[in-house]
Amino acid sequence: MAPESTAEPPRKSTLAAVLAPVVQPLVAILIATCVGGLLVLALGRNPFEVYGILISGSVVGVPNILVTLQMMTPLIFTGLAVAVSFRAGLWNIGVEGQMLVGALLSGIVGYAIHLPWFLHIPLAVLAGFVGGALWAAIPALLRVYLNVNELVVCLMLNPVALLVTGFFASHVLKAPGPTNKLPDIDPSAALPNFSIYSQVNAGLFLALACCIVLALVNARTIRGFEWKLMGLNPRFAYYGGVDVPRRAIGVMMLGGGIAGLAGAEQVLGQYRAFYDNFSPGYGFDGIAVAMLANFDPIGVILAAFLFGALNGGSAVLQMMTGLSKYLVQVLQFITVLVLAAQFSWNWLRRRPVAALAQEPERSAAPDLAHPSGRQA
Amino acid sequence: MDFDILNSAVRIATPLIFAAMGGVVTYQAGMLNIALDGFMIVAAFTAIATAYLTGSLTIALIGAIVASVLLAALMAVFNIRLRANIFIAGTAIIFLGNSLTALLLKGVLGQDGVFTSDRIPNFPVIRVPVVDGIPVLGALLSGHTILVYVAYLSVPLVAWSLYRTRWGLRLRVVGEAPEAAAAVGIDVDKIKFQAMLISGLFCGFAGAYLSLAYVTLFAREMTAERGLIALAAIFFARGNPYRTALVAVLFGGATALSVRLPQVTGLAPQLLQLIPYVVTVLALVIVGWRTTRARNRYGAWRFDLG
Amino acid sequence: MQEAVLPHKGLPPVVRMRDIVKMFGSFVAVRSAAIEIGRGEIHALVGENGAGKSTLMNILYGLLERTSGAIEVFGQDVHFSNPRQAIGYGIGMVHQHFKLAPSFTVAENIILGSEPLTTYQRIDRVRAERETRELSQRFGLNLDPRAIVGTLPVGLRQRVEILKALYRQAEILILDEPTAVLTPQETRELFATMRSLAEGGHSIIFITHKLREVIEVSDRISIMRHGEVVDTIDNDNVTAQQIAGHMVGRSVLLRVEKSVARPTTEVLLKVDGLTALGDRGERAVDDLSLEVRAGEIVGLAGVQGNGQDELVECIAGLRRPVEGNVAICGTGLGPKPSDNRDAGLAYIPADRGGVGLSLESSIWENMTIGHLPQFSRFGVFAIGKARDRAKQLIACFDVRGGEVEKPAKSLSGGNQQKVQLARELTRPAARLIIAEQPSQGVDIGAIESIHRTLVEMRDAGRGVFVVSADLDEIMSISDRVLVMYRGRIVANLLAAETDTEEVGRYMGGLDGEPFGPSAGDTGKGLADGA
Questions:
Q1: Contact state of A233 with C102 under an 8 Å Cβ cutoff
Q2: How far is residue A307's CA from residue B201's CA, in Å, rounded to a whole number?
Q3: Is C104 in contact with B172 (Cβ distance < 8 A)?
Q4: Contact assignment for A155 to B34 by CB distance below 8 Å
Q5: CB contact residues (below 8 A), chain B span 201-260, against chain A
Q6: Is the Cβ pair B288, A373 closer than 8 Å?
Q7: From CA B68, how far away is CA B62, in angstroms rounded?
Q8: Which residues on B lie below 8 Å from A156 (Cβ)?
Q9: Contacting partners of chain C (3+ CB pairs under 8 A)
Q10: Which residues of A are less than 8 Å from B79 in CB distance?
Q11: Which of C72, C110, C144, C473 has the highest local Cβ count within 10 Å?
Q12: In chain C, which stretches have pLDDT less than 50?
C-alpha cells in the first residue's frame, strides 16, 4: 500500500482533489495561453503564428531541443529552490539574489584557485551552494528570531544581491577589459559541455539528481515529513516535537543553496565566468515553475521543461518578430496568478461569501493576510 | 548650506507617500498588499505612453490611475473573490506588471530598456508666491509640481477618512475583526475590495509622478521596489498615515543626501544604490526587534511561519 | 414568572420557520426543521453539538442562506441573505464567540453598522456615546461608552453584544451559548436581564446545551437532533434527564461512573510559584502553585480568561514563565515542548485546529507526529508501519469515520478529539495527562467515552489534569477541584465535599466584585484575601 503514496500532494480529500494536481496546472496554462493570445492580438500580431514560433523554436529539431535543455537547467534549480521552501511554508522568493551570490562565489573559486578538475569542479559547485545558502540565511534568521516577513526581505535582498555582485564584477575583482565580469574560470573548473548547438552541460544532470533526491527526501524521510507538516501547520509541528525554528532556517538555506547551484551552473557551465547582471530573471521564473509543479520535485522537472522551452522559443521569437521575451514572463505570471486561486476551486460550487460566514472556526485560523507587525 | 537638498528630499519622498497611503488603506483593512510596485509600474507606463500619444498630462494622469485601479481590481478579484493567497497573488502581480510593461514598451513604443521623447509635456512647476522667497521654507514648500502637493495633502485626507468617517471606522474594524463587521451586516469583502481599489488609485498617482514628474522617461522596473519601501514605512509607523508619511519623508531625506555622496566620496554607484534597500531592511529589522522583544518579555512563543 | 409570559401565548408567533433545509455540499446540516417563537417568551433551543442549532439560527439571522423552507417574521415571508436584512426585521444575535473589535470603544462597537452621522459622512461621536449611555441605563446594563472593549471582562463584553442588538431595535434576540463564558453569578445576572427583556416584550431564543439552565430560565424548549426539531415542550415538570434523552435519542448518564480515587504520594505535576505574562503583557498567571499526583483527576475550574490558557501553555512548553518552576514527573521545564513530552506529559489542547491537529493532514499523519523517532531508521521514515499503527489506534479508540488517509478535518469534533487522545495517551512515557476543554465541540456520546478514557488513565496510575470552562464537566469528572481566579488558585476542594454553588462563588472571586480593571493588575490583593 505504500507505493502509491510516494509523491502525494499536501492536499487531497476527494476525487476531484486527487485529480487537481493535473487539472489545475493544465487549466492555468490554458487560461494564460488565451490571455497571452489576446495580448499578442492587441499588439497586432497573429497569436497562432507567435505560439507556432514559440513551439517550433523550442522543441522542433535537435538544436532547438538542446537549447531548451540548456534553458531548463537553471529553472530546475530555481524552481526546486522555491518549491522546497514553499512546501515548508516559507515564502522564499529571494531565489534570484541567492543565485547571484552563489554564482559570484562559484566564479571566484573557479578562477582564483587552481586544482585538478576532480577537485576543482566539486569545490566550485559547492561554493555556489554555500553562497546561496548564506544569502538565504539572512531572511531566514530575521524570520525566525525577529519575526520579520521573509517575503518582503527576500524581495529587498534581490536588488541588493545584484548591486553587490555588480560591485565585485565592476570594481573589486573586475577582469581587465570593458565588460563588467570576473576573470574567466580555469578550464579545470568548467562543467563539461556536450554539444556545439547549445551550452547544455553536466549541470543538467546535477539538477535532475537534486530533484530525485528531494523527491525521495520528501516522500521517504522524517525530515521531508517534518517540512510538510511545518508548511501545513507550524504550531502543530512545533508542539509535536519538530524543531520548527531550526528546520525553518535549514530549509531556507537548503533552498538558497539549490538556488546557488543554479548560479554555479550558469558560471561554470554556460558563461565560464561571472558576468554582472547575467540572469534574465531565472529566480523569478522559479516561482512560476514551483507553483506549476505544486511544489513537487518531479513536477518541477516538467514545469521547468515547459518554461525552459518557452524561454528557448522566445529567443527565436524575438529574432523573427521582435516581440520581446517578456511575453513569456507575462504568460508565466498569469499562470502563477491563476494557480494561486487553487485553494478556492470549490468556489465553482459554492459562493465564497457564504463560506466565510458558515464556519467561524475556520475564519479564526491564522490569517495570512493580516499584517504581522500589527498590535491590538 | 545648500537648500536644494530639501527640495529634492520632498520630491524623492513624493512617490513613497503616494504608495504608502495606498498601502496604509489596505493595511488598515487587514491586507498586506505587497503588489504596490506592480500597480505603480503599470501606472508609470500608461502615463508616459498616454502622454506621448495624446500630449495631454490630464489624460495621462487619468490613464495611469485607470490602469493601476484595473490591476488592483484584478488583485482584489483573485485575493478576495478567489481566495488566492495575498503573497502569491501580490508577487505575481508585481512580476506581471514588470513584464507586461516591458513587453508593451517594446510592442507599443518600440524601445527595449528606456523610453523618452520630446513630445512628452512636463508638469509645470508651481512657485508659491510669498513663500518662494523665504530661504528654507521656499525650498521645502515651493517649486514643486502639482502632484507633490496632492501627495502631501492626501495624508490628512487619508487620516480623516480612516479616523473620522463611517467608512473609515468600518474599514478599520474589517481589518481588526472581520467577523465583528460581518455580524452587523457590513459587507467585509466589499470594504476590502474598495480598499484595494483605493490602493490602486494612490499607486496610479505614484506611477504617473514617477514617469512624468520625477523624471520624464520610462525604464523597465523603474519603481525600484518603492512599494516595498513604502510597506516598510507602514510597518514602522504601524499603519498611522501621519507617521507613515513622516517615515517616508525621512527616507527621502536620507536618499537625497546619499545622492550627493558620490561627488564627496567617490564611492561606486552600486554602493549608493544599495542605501534605500539596506535602510528598508534595517527598518524591518527594527520593527521585528521591537515586537519580538515585547513578545519575549511576555514569554509567548509564536511560530506562525506563513 | 412563567405565568407572566403565558398571556402572550394567544398572540401569533413572531418567528415561524417551516421545513428549513440547509445543505453544505452533500452534507445535510438541517433537515426539515420547524420552530415557532412567541412574543415575549424565552425559548430554549437545545441539542447536541452538530445537531444544527447554530446553523438554524444563523439562517434566521441571515448569516447562512437556507437551501429550502419558509421563514415568517412578524407574519411576513422573509428571505435574508445577509444579517443586515435580518436586523431590519428586528432580529439580533449574540454569538458564542463575541463579534467585537477589541481595540475599539464600547460606543464604536455598538454603533458599528448603524452609525449616527453628521456632515460629510462623519461619525457623530457625541451622539453615539450619549445614545450608548442612555441605552445601557434603560436596560440596566451599566457600561462606559468610552471603555476599550479589549480591556473589559467577559461579562461586560457580553453586555456590549446585547446592547448592540438592542441599539438596532432588536425585538427577537438570539443568544448562542451565552453562559459558556460566565460565572454562575454572572449567569444569574444574565438571566435576570433576559427575564426583564422578555417581560418588556422581547422574544429570546436561548441556544444552549446546559440543561439545568434551560429548566431554570426558559418558557418553552425546542430540542434538535440530527438537524430536526424533534420536539417543542413547555417548561413544565420536565427534568434534565428527559430532555437529554430527547437530545440523544436514548437515555444518557450525565455523571461519570468512577470509583473513589486512590492517589499515591508521587507528584507528577508540580507548579511552584509560577508567574507568566499574557500576550498583552499582563500578569496572567500570578505566583501560582499546584500539584497533581498519580492516580487522581484534578479539575481546574474558572471563568475563561483568568490565566488558565497561559498556565497550560507554560506547562506544555508553549510559553515561557517569568518566574517559578514547573516540574513534570520530577523533571524541570526544558526549552522545547518536546522536552516536556519526553518527561512524561501528554497534552490534549483545546485548540484542536491550531495546536492539536493539522486538519489538512491525514489521520495517520496526525497520529504519528510525536512518535516520529519510533518510525525512523537513519532518518528514513517507515510510513507503512506508521499507517498500520494508525489503523490499530482508529479501531482501538473507536474513531468513527476514520480512514488512515482521510484528512483530520473530515472528522467530527468528537472523533478529532479521539485522534488527539489516541496519539497522546499511547506514548509509553506519558504519565501526566493534561486535557484542556476535553468536551468542547464534542457530542454527548463521545464525551462519555472521552471521560471514561480519562478515568481509566487515572485508574492505571497516571495523573490527569482537566482544565474546563464547563463547571458541570469539572464537577462530574474531578476528584479534586482547583479554582483559578485572576491568575491564582483561590480554592482547593475535594469534589465529594463541594458543590457547584461553592465552586461558582470562588470562580467569581468569592465576594462579588466580578467586574473591575483587567485581570492581573489587581489580582494580588484579591487573591490574598481569599
A1: no
A2: 34
A3: yes
A4: yes
A5: 224-225, 228, 231-232, 235, 238-239
A6: yes
A7: 10
A8: 225, 228, 277, 280-281, 284
A9: A, B
A10: 369
A11: C110
A12: 1-7, 251, 511-530
**Subunits with 3+ C-beta pairs closer than 8 A to B:** A, C
Distance from CA of A311 to the nearest CA of B (A): 13
CATH number at residue B115: 1.10.3470.10
Give the HSE-up count for residue A348: Cα atoms under 13 Å, Cβ half-sphere.
5
* Structural domains of chain B, count: 1
Asked whether the beta carbons of C507 and C485 are under 8 A apart, the reply is: yes
Residues A311-334: pLDDT tens digits?
888 888 888 877 778 899 999 999
* Domain residue spans of chain A: 34-354
The CA distance from A328 to A36, in Å, is 9
Across the interface, which of A1, A357, A366 has its CB nearest the CB of C64? A357
Q: Which one of A333, A339, A368 would you mutate to disrupt binding with B, by most B Cβ within 10 Å of its Cβ?
A: A333
Where do the domains of chain C lie, and which CATH numbers do they carry? 40-64+78-248 (3.40.50.300), 267-344+429-528 (3.40.50.300)
Task: Write out the H or E segment, with its range, that includes residue A230.
Answer: helix A222-232
Residue-range definition of the domain harbouring residue B259: 3-298
Contact C372 A241 (CB under 8 A): yes
d(CA B107, CA B101) in angstroms, rounded, equals 9
- The set of cell numbers assigned to C324 is 517559578
Position B192, amino acid: K
Is residue B259 predicted with pLDDT exceeding 90?
Answer: no
Collapse the DSSP code of C463 into the 3-class scheme (helix H, G, I; strand E, B; otherwise coil) and give the result. Answer: strand
Domain A34-354 is found in CATH 1.10.3470: yes
Query: Does a structural domain hold residue B304?
Result: no
Model-wide pTM > 0.90:
no
% of chain A surpassing 90 pLDDT = 60
Question: How would you list the strands of the sheet with C172-176, edge to edge?
Answer: C91-94, C172-176, C203-208, C42-47, C220-225, C228-234
| B70 within domain boundaries | yes
Answer whether residue B306 is part of any domain: no
Provide the shortest C-alpha distance from residue A243 to chain C (in Å): 8
> What is the identity of the amino acid at C72?
E
A364 contacts in chain B (CB < 8 Å): 179
Minimum-distance CB partner of A232 among C102, C347, C358: C358
C-alpha torsion angle, residues A257, A263, A269, A273 (rounded to 10): -130
B136-165 residues touching C, CB cutoff 8 A: 164-165
- Cα separation, A152 vs A372, in Å, equals 12
**Contact pairs from chain A to chain B, CB under 8 Å:** 207
Q: Which of A156, A324, A342 has its CB closest to that of B102?
A: A324
Q: Over the stretch C276-316, which tens digit does the pLDDT of each residue have? A: 888 767 788 999 999 999 999 999 988 777 889 899 989 98
> Has residue B203 been placed in a domain?
yes
* CA–CA min distance C17, chain B (Å): 21
ipTM of the complex: 0.90
pLDDT at residue B257, as a whole number: 78
In a 10 Å sphere around its CB, with 0-12 CB exposed, 13-18 middle and 19+ buried, how is residue C145 labelled? buried
Nearest residue to A360 (alpha-carbon basis) of C98, C249, C129: C98
Distance from CA of A282 to the nearest CA of B (A): 12
Q: Any idea which of A152-156, B31-35, B77-81, B268-272 has the lowest mean pLDDT? A: B268-272
- CA A332, CA A334: separation in Å to the nearest integer? 6
Please write the tens of the pLDDT for every residue from A33-65: 999 999 999 988 899 999 999 888 888 888 889
Query: In this structure, are residues A129 and A253 in contact, taking their beta carbons and an 8 Å threshold?
Result: no
What pLDDT score does C433 carry? 94
| Pairing outcome for strands C42-47 and C220-225 | parallel
In Å, what is the CA distance from A208 to each residue of A25, A79, A95, A304, C498?
21, 12, 18, 11, 70
